[in-house]
Structure formats: structure tokens, C-alpha cells
Amino acid sequence: MDLDLSSDQRMLLSAIEPLLAQHRQLPQPAAPDYVVVGGDLDAALDAAGFYGDADGFDLERADAALLLDQIAQCPFAVPAMASLTVAPALGIALPRPIALAESLDPRVPIRFLAQSRTLLVAQGEQVLALDLEGAEIVPQDTIFAYPFARLASYPADALRPLAGVNAQQLRDGWALGLTFEILGALRAAHALTVDYVKQRHQFKRAIGAFQAVQHRLAEGATHIEALHYLAHRAAIGGDSAEIALATSYAQQHVPQIVYDCHQFHGAMGLTLEYVLHHWTYKLKALAGELGGASVQGRRAAQLQWSEAA
Amino acid sequence: MDLDLSSDQRMLLSAIEPLLAQHRQLPQPAAPDYVVVGGDLDAALDAAGFYGDADGFDLERADAALLLDQIAQCPFAVPAMASLTVAPALGIALPRPIALAESLDPRVPIRFLAQSRTLLVAQGEQVLALDLEGAEIVPQDTIFAYPFARLASYPADALRPLAGVNAQQLRDGWALGLTFEILGALRAAHALTVDYVKQRHQFKRAIGAFQAVQHRLAEGATHIEALHYLAHRAAIGGDSAEIALATSYAQQHVPQIVYDCHQFHGAMGLTLEYVLHHWTYKLKALAGELGGASVQGRRAAQLQWSEAA
Amino acid sequence: MDFTWTPEQQDYRQHLRAFIARALPADWEAKSNYDPGSPYVVDFARDFCPALAAEGLLIPHWPVEHGGGGADPWFHWILGEEMFAVGEPRSYQYMNVNWIGPALLRYGSAAQQALHIPQITGGSVFWCQGFSEPSAGSDLAALKTRAERDGDGYVINGQKIWTSAASFASYCFLLARTGPTKRDISVFLVPMDTPGIEVREVMSLTGRRSLHEVFLTDVRVGEETRLGEENAGWAIVKAVLHNERIGAPRYIMAQRALDAAARVLRQDGRFDVPSIQAGLGKARAAVDACQLLCFRIIDGRMKNVSPGGETNVARYALALADRAVGDFIGEHLHDALLAREEQTILTQFRRAASTGLGAGAAEIQLDIVAQSFLELPRSH
Amino acid sequence: MDFTWTPEQQDYRQHLRAFIARALPADWEAKSNYDPGSPYVVDFARDFCPALAAEGLLIPHWPVEHGGGGADPWFHWILGEEMFAVGEPRSYQYMNVNWIGPALLRYGSAAQQALHIPQITGGSVFWCQGFSEPSAGSDLAALKTRAERDGDGYVINGQKIWTSAASFASYCFLLARTGPTKRDISVFLVPMDTPGIEVREVMSLTGRRSLHEVFLTDVRVGEETRLGEENAGWAIVKAVLHNERIGAPRYIMAQRALDAAARVLRQDGRFDVPSIQAGLGKARAAVDACQLLCFRIIDGRMKNVSPGGETNVARYALALADRAVGDFIGEHLHDALLAREEQTILTQFRRAASTGLGAGAAEIQLDIVAQSFLELPRSH
Prior knowledge:
The complex is a heterotetramer, with two copies of chain A and two copies of chain C. Chain A contains nine helices and nine strands. Chain A is an alpha+beta fold. Chain A has a domain at 167-304: Butyryl-CoA Dehydrogenase, subunit A, domain 3, CATH 1.20.140.10. The longest helix of chain A has 33 residues, at 167-199. Chain A is globular, with a radius of gyration of 19 Å. By secondary structure, chain C is α+β, with helices and mostly antiparallel strands. Chain C has helices spanning 7-23, 28-32, 39-54, 73-85, 93-107, 110-122, 233-245, 251-267, 274-302, 309-332, 334-339, 343-354, 362-373, and strands at residues 127-130, 146-150, 153-161, 171-177, 185-191, 197-201, 212-222, 226-227. The longest helix of chain C has 29 residues, at 274-302. Chains in contact: A-B, A-C, A-D, B-C, B-D, C-D.
């Protein structure tokens, strides 16, 4: 047992810090947009080799997950997840950015589809890879802080099944990545709120001095701390059960923490100029991905108490 | 629309008040028991005609339910419910007290079985009535504040189906009665707790002056107020859907309110001498009856949004 | 108790529904996005409200001598339910009907009434509410905007924030400090085209023109714009807030969203999943709870019971209901949210994000419930 | 990070399990009711603990010179998990191992250690903890029990309440006021058979002899019973409480209860109901969350990091986990609760009712998390 980050992980954080430091805040004056895609940050991460090119880093799964946590603390929408926790698990080099889907249904909006060069689809037991070069992609306006688009059509020969990989590997990598994206965004939204309630006064004292506010922020902090360890346990060689458990926990606690962050921010949190919604409206999207907390919890229970056990 | 009690209902409350006033508190010094059956109160209610004898009151369903709310605010376990909201709906005079069951399974403990003369069973579409005179009944020690017992055996000729009544009528009356039993016990436990936190000091001030305590008690009060109206809407000619909705709401909010009552009472609430557990350990039993909040919520949804709707 | 509607109330609701069905275009949902501040809805309301007035449906509960129908508060409530259910085609004119008009009838001078009431009852005017300030949200005692005596009028300086409808409203129901103590507040009925008023829309998650900043620089107004006595604003606001807190039956949108959710889930073949059904039922119970707690307030108005902590109980129940439905949608209707095809579901999900913020934060409702309803000691 | 056990730790756990399997009778569950204060368990512990000591399993983490195994804190934690999982057959002797012994080793005189340590390491003695008083629960500054200097000793007067194990313990780790200011508190190691001590069991929902009142009337003790300096009790208690707050891995009972629940649900044919599976998974996540947050504290002990708000985070997570599992049981295992056949399920349901009460109320954990972990301003 050792519950601290490893020295390698701390080195990784140091290595990424200068790059992330430039992307912790939205450009000022901020454009009041629902979605701000962090294309620059993505390109910089790619150029620095964090997505595991031939001469880049060869990150362990837990290190890639740690990176995702850090990236998700930036307010931008960055198409990093599939490249960090999914593609490496499949062991095949694919043009990135990569989008993920549970089906090829043209009605279902897919996160980062318009920003991606490859779409990976978990279809039954199979993983399909679609080269998006010639695909027709229709952007979908949503209320979330991620770009979504639908796949209207694609050349028949652009789709191929990936041999030797199982859809479960894709789903596990996806759920794990999703968990760390939630973790990072929760940290950022919660920290911003803690900071805000220290500054903002109502009834002649800091909002953060009200006990009811304190208790809800403390409960949120407890969940974020817990998620940190559940997520890392899942990342470091955790099996599908431990991944589903962490994903379920992450998704389950999004609504209350997001509600509290907005509640304690008052109307300020509703304005597009202010940064909060870039995290909370990512979180609202992530909380429903892969079926949401109940589906993931169910999966964890099935694996934990399978007939054999 | 009129959301106040009717003048008949206020008269009923006045009529019952002197009787209930004698049973609002446990005898002192209290015997530290898990279960205190209010046999005296039941007999007094019976003698006063509240259970609807030939020359007693002929209560409307909503009035009978109101009475149950009042009775449930007494700390005693009183076998009143089936006589007040179930038997009248079936329109058949049966020896009372009456116990209710969802099956004749000898393994399942039944509330008030040992105190009853009749057992009504909702079996499929049928209602069965069992004369308990010659039945073999095994008391079951539980952690709840109601007496439970199992039905080990009974004379074959003691069981008869009730013609012309539907099991749904029984289940509706049961769910409605259960809802008012929860309402009354929640009121009593919550009021006791509000009173306690006004008296009890910690860190040099009343516990009730702490904002976090206030907010949780205020939320509990909101649920109890809401339940009052949901329950009465169900009682006054409400259909099965409105009954299931009220029952679901009642059962759903038991755990948090009960937890808070105990939490704010500290160790005092755990002592058998103190009255709190007589309500909370009834509530814990009632919250699981008839399948619990999810089963009732599901039923409400099925009825609300049936295919036809 | 009685939970049924009278035949007259039922007729009124049917009349309203029939009117709405005729008045709203077929593509209303898609074009309006149920967003009361959108240019489309605001423009629409400029025709819709006069038509509503012409039909005698706009102010059923106002006194007959002011053009109302003289009906009881239930009719007002039914009007609100039916309007809110279709995304409020009156746009922000609902405020006129709910509390601005009534405040003018109660506190306004003959001249003020003569000027404003016909505009309101004609359905042709928008108002905005100048309460919140950068350093005074729920805490009106911290108000900084000042109105200084200047000749026979006042000069107002300050800043308002989060003001809904400010960029298209004709008048502002404005609070300003007119004396040294924290309760020395007056209400002014300020034309929004008065020189010195500058408005900036703050783009928001809650819809178009729902939030603005309003800057007041040497805004000169005559004494005739002051509502009631000088420094009597606190009492006016207190009365107003009780009407405003449960002024709109917002739970009706949650109820409609659940109906839509049940329909979508049935189409998707997921309606029979037990956990989904249980979630639907529990969410519906939360919405009905809120509805009944609001009904109690209207019942109290019927009986001239002065409102107490019950108003705050109802207001808090709204936050609970909105969240219950919003959370259900977030978990089980992710695809429908992404597809944006069900405006009711989407609107409810968006509303749920800001429930418990407007009209006094949810936490403040709980403080009041604890202290005035449960009679617990003050917490600070 | 590393979430695996070393081979030595695994061996130790296996060794423990094998010992427990041999030592506990076949009807242990039925006879003990997992109730550590029941006469049966207390009697059992009087043989069990010495046997545990003889096997070298009682105090693995204590220093070798005091009869311990010199092992690291993880071994202590594994011991706790395995013991708590079977309803704590050490009865209240777990307190000796967790914090009373360590406090004596750190603050005790040579004579005190010579008297007490062998009894503790031999597994033959019960202690109780005299902290709470009728008017001082979580608030030790309100302590009223006084120890007045009298010759070369003290006379103690006062009352303790909620004291676990008081009716069968040999010693009390007693707090009393020894000076005028609120921090002037000292610790006394008081033999329970000292004249003037009267004990009354308070029958409780949490099990036999878990709550008592202890009345102290002119209780004369020698100076040699005082632990540490006079008025130095506050520092001792602070250190002790950090050990006590997550002293016992109580989550393990919640984990076992969920295992039992899954088994019962499978027998009943309800395991495959989606909502039940989802509830099981979420409850398990809450339990694992608590376990990992406790692990962090042990990891901190390993690295000599002085404990901060993390301890309170872990303590609060225990309340959340206990409630998650308790609520799941209450809703889905009603019949199993009534039938009382599954002691693990029943015990967890009972425990959940009082979780967040012992060792500083859950609300106080949240206060500390807010103020020391999030660095929010004091709330009062």
C-alpha cells in the first residue's frame, strides 16, 4: 500500500505544469460561449508527445489517467481522453483525435466527433474503427460545454473492425477516462467555489462562514477526495469491477456538487462570462455518458457478486 | 379547493383529544422496552366507537386516516390501521384487531399478528380472511418498535376468501393507512427533535441555533408538510395512483428524517428509556412495508403514465 | 379538505387552453425555445397579451374597477399554470400581473395608477425589477444605490445586477436608499429611457435577456415616480416578495417535463425498467408536493390569512421538485438532452440548474423556515 | 500509488483468519449477536484475547520492548479489519490496543506502564473511556467533572455518561477538570472499584452495556493515577482522538453486510433486478471510498505525516458509507431484517442508526473539514 503519487507521477506533473499553466484560464475578455474547445492545448500536448507517439512518452494507464485529471481542471474542452486511456489499451496506432461511440446510430450526438480523425465504436463484442476523413458530420448544438456532432454518413470502406481487441477493453478505457475527466472538473469547480465563498459577502460576512454552506462544501470535498482514490485504484491495474465502481461513484455525486457550486455562486455562476459553467456543463454531460451512475453501479455489482463469487 | 381540515374533521380531533391526551407519553418510569403495545389505547378507541361498530362513528376514509395520524403521534404501537382504512373499504364486519399480510408464508413476520383476531391476506386478486382463533402464532423478536409474529399453522376451515372484494382495495387501504402512520410518527419524532435542540446546548449555544442543524430540520419540516397534503389528497377520494404517490413519498423521506432526529439527539436518542426510538423504529419498519418507496413509486408511475394515458 | 376544482374554475382553464391553442403558432415550441426573454417571445407577447386582455383572460383576479374579472386567487393561479406550461408566452409581463400591478394598486397614487394601470391591463408594457446589486443579492439591507433629494425630485446613482428584461422593459420597479439607516429604502417607478440609465445584457445559461447589468448615473426622476412615502420601501418590498416568492407556478414545467420523459422513455422501450419507473414516480411525488404546498398559499390568500413561513416551505419545495426532475432527466434522458428535440425536457433541465437561486436563495428559505416556522433560535 | 498488500501482510491476514476460524465456536454469530458488550462476548474475550496474545497477534504494531511485534501500522489495521468483520470478539479490549495502550506508552510513567501494560498485552483487562458528560458531548471544554487536590492525591466529583463497558471495565481513562481555565484538564487512570464510583447501565439500541452513567462521588485517587502533567490532559486527548476517530475499521461490517445482502437477494431471486443491482453497486462504492480514505490515514502514519483534516474526511466518509448500506438494507432487505437470520445484515442496519454519533458527531467532522481542510472561516 502506498497512497501517494509515485515519484514518476510527480515528475510527470512537473513536466506538464508549464504547458497547463498557460491554459488554466480562459482568454480575457472571455467570449461568452457555451463551448470553448482547447485546440491549442490539445496540439501542444500532442507536440510534446503526451499522446504517446513513437518518440513521445509511453505512459502507463495510471499516468495517462493522472494527466487527464490535470487537463480536465482546465476550463477548455480538450479531446484528450480517448488518446490517453482508450487507444493505448487497444494497442493500435490510430490517427487522433479520437471520438468514442456506443453505436453508429446517426441520431446520437457524439462528443468531439467534429474534432476527431478516428471514431471508435464499441459494438457488441467488437470494436470498429471509422476513418472520419470522408465522413459527413453534422454539428449538434447542445447545452453542454463539449462540442457534439452526429455522424450523418461515411464511406463504406472507411469502417473496419479491429482484430484482436475486445469491446470491453474500449469500454473500460472509456469509463476510466470519463472518471478522471469528472474528477478533474469536480476539483476545479469545487475549488473555484471554495475560493468564491471566501471572497463574497452576504449579510455582512463571507458566504463561506455560514455553517450550512460549509457542511455542503465539506461533503463535496469528501466525495472528491474519495473519488481520487477510487479512480486511482481503478487506474492502477484495477479490473472492470473497480473501474465501474469508480465511474459510478463519480457520476453519482456530480448532481449535488454541481448544484452546490451553482447555488453558492448565485447568479454569477449562470453567466457565460464566468468560468464555472465550463466545468459544470461538462460535468452534466459526463454524468450521463455510458448510461450514467446506475448503469455503472449495476455493472460493478454484477462483477463484484457474480454467480461464481 | 380547500386545504384546511373540514369542520367535521376538526370536531373529530376535538372528540378524540381527551382520549389521546392520556396516551401521549409512556408511563414513567418507562420500562426500557423495544416495543410498547398500546392495548389500553386500542381498547379505549374501540369502546368509544372509533372503529365503526353499529352504534359507533361511521368515519369517512379521510377522517379515519386523520385519526390514524393522531394515533401514530402516540409512542405506543396500536393495532388500529387495518380497522380504520382497510376493513371499512372491504365493507365486511370482521373481528378486530386485524393484521395484514401479502402472503400466508409462515416464514414472514406479520405486524400485530399476535394481537389480532383476524388476518387479511392480499393474495393475487383475492382477499383471504383468516380467523386467528385456532391459529398457532410464534412471536418474532425484531429490532422494530412494533410487535411481529409468524403464522406457524391454522385450522384449514379458518381461512375463507372474501367474495366481492378485490385485493387492490385491500392494498390501497393498507398503503393509505401506512402513509398516515408514517406521517404521524414523522411529526412526533420531528417535533420532539425540534424541541430537544431548543433545550440542549453544545459549544455554549442551543444545538438548534446551528445553521446546519436548522437547515436539515427545515428540510424535514418541508417534507412533512408536503406529506400532509399528499396524504390527504390520497385519502379524500384519491385513486390508487395518488395513494401510491403519497406512500412512496412517505417511505422515501423516512431514512433522512429519522437519521437527522437521531443525529441531533446524540446518544440520548439511542437509549431505550427515551421516547424517540418508539417513533423512529416504527418508521424504520413502515418504510420497508409493501415493498418500500421504489416499489410504490414504480406503481405510481405505472398508473400515472399507463399506456392509455 | 377539498382537492377538486369548481365548474367555473374548470371552465376558465378550458377557456384558457382553447385560447392558447388558437393563439400559439404550430412551431411555437421550436421558435420560442420556451425562453421568455428571447426576441421571438417578447415580440410575440406584445400581440399575445393584448389579445389575452381582449378575451378577459389577462387579469381575472384583479378588481373589476381596474379592468379585472373580480375572480378569486385560484383563477390567477390557474392562469399562471397554463401560461408557464407553454413556456410563458406573456414573457416577463407575468410580473405585471402577479405583483407589479397589485403593488401599484395598493401603494400607488391616483396619477401613478392612471399612468401605469391601463398599460398593464392592456398588455402592452414590460417592467423590470431593480432589486439585486453587485454587493446585495438576497441581502437588501446592503443596498448601495442612492436616491438623493434634488429640488422637487431625486438623483439616482448606483448599479443593479441580474435584472431580467432590462434591455426591453419600459419601466423599472427600482429600490434605492433614501436615508441613513438600513431600512431607509424607497421604491421608484423609473422609465427605462430616462437619461443616465445604461443597460448591458449579461449572457447567461438561463436564456436570452434574463440577466443584465443596469448602471444608473445621475438619473433624474420626479417625486411623482416614488411609490408610497419616502423610506416606506421596506414594507412594500416585504409585501411584494411574499407574492413574488411563489408568484409563478413553475412546478408545472417540471410536471410537463415528466410527462414528456415518460413518453420518450416509452418510445425508447425503457419505460418498463423498474428503476426508471421508480424514479419517475418519486420525481412526480416531489412535483405534486410542491404543487400542493403552493395551493396552500393560495388557499390562505382566499381566506385572508397573512402569509408566514409556509411561503418559504413552498418555495423550498420548488427547488426540491426542480432538482428531482432535473436529476432524473440528467441520468435517464441524456440522449434526449443531446438531441434537443424535446423542448420541455430541455427547458426543465436548464431551469433545474438555477432553481433555488431566484427570489431568495434556497438556503435563505431554509433559514426562514427554521426560524419562523419551527421557531428555532436565530443562527447568527 | 500501490493498492496491493505485501506478502507479509497477506500472510498475517491469513494467519489471523485461521486463528479466528479455530477460536470462534460454530455458533458464534448466533450467540454473540455481534454485540461486543454482551455478557457472552465479554466472557469470550477474556479467553480469546490472551490466546490472541499468545499467538503474537494481539499487538502486532506495538514496540518489541513492550511485547509487540514491531510491525508497521498496516498490521494493526489488518487486525482491526479481521476482528471487526466478525463482530469484534475482543469486545472493548480493542480500545486498549488502539489508543489506551499507546497513550500509556507515550505519556505514562514507568510505574504506570509497569502496572497497566502487562495487563493490556496479556489481554486480560477492560478499560472504559470517561469523556462525555451530561452537558459536554462533543464539547470537551464544557467538562464539569472536577479533580480537586487533596493531600498527595485528588478527590474527584462529577458524572460521566454514555460510557461504554463501564459496568465490567477494570479501569477508566477519565478526564477531569484540574484548574480554572477551560483547557485545564487532566487524565486519570482510575480503577473502577474505587469507592465512590457508581455505574448504571443505560439500556440502548446499540447493544448491551454500550451505554452507562458513571457517578463519581468523593472518589479519592492517588497522584500516581494522573497521566502526564497536571492540566496537560488537553494535548493527550487531542492525540488520542486522532487515533480513536478512525481507530476501528468499521466499514468492514458494511462490506460484509453487502456481501450477505447480495447472497440473500440471489437466494430470493431478486439479485438481477436492475435497481437493486445499482443500489448494491453504489453502496459498495461508498464503502470502498471510506476504506480508501482510511487507508490514506494509515499511509500517513507509515510516513509520520501528522494527521490533519484528512482524519475527519475519513470519519465522515464512514457515516456516509454506513448510511448508504443501512438505507439499502432498510429498503430492499426488510424481510431479512424481520427474520433476523442474517446477523451481519442486522448488525449493519443497527449500526447505521448510530453512525456519525460516536467519536465526535458527523456535523463536527464537517465543521473541521470545512475549516481545517478547506480553510473556510470559522462559522461561529
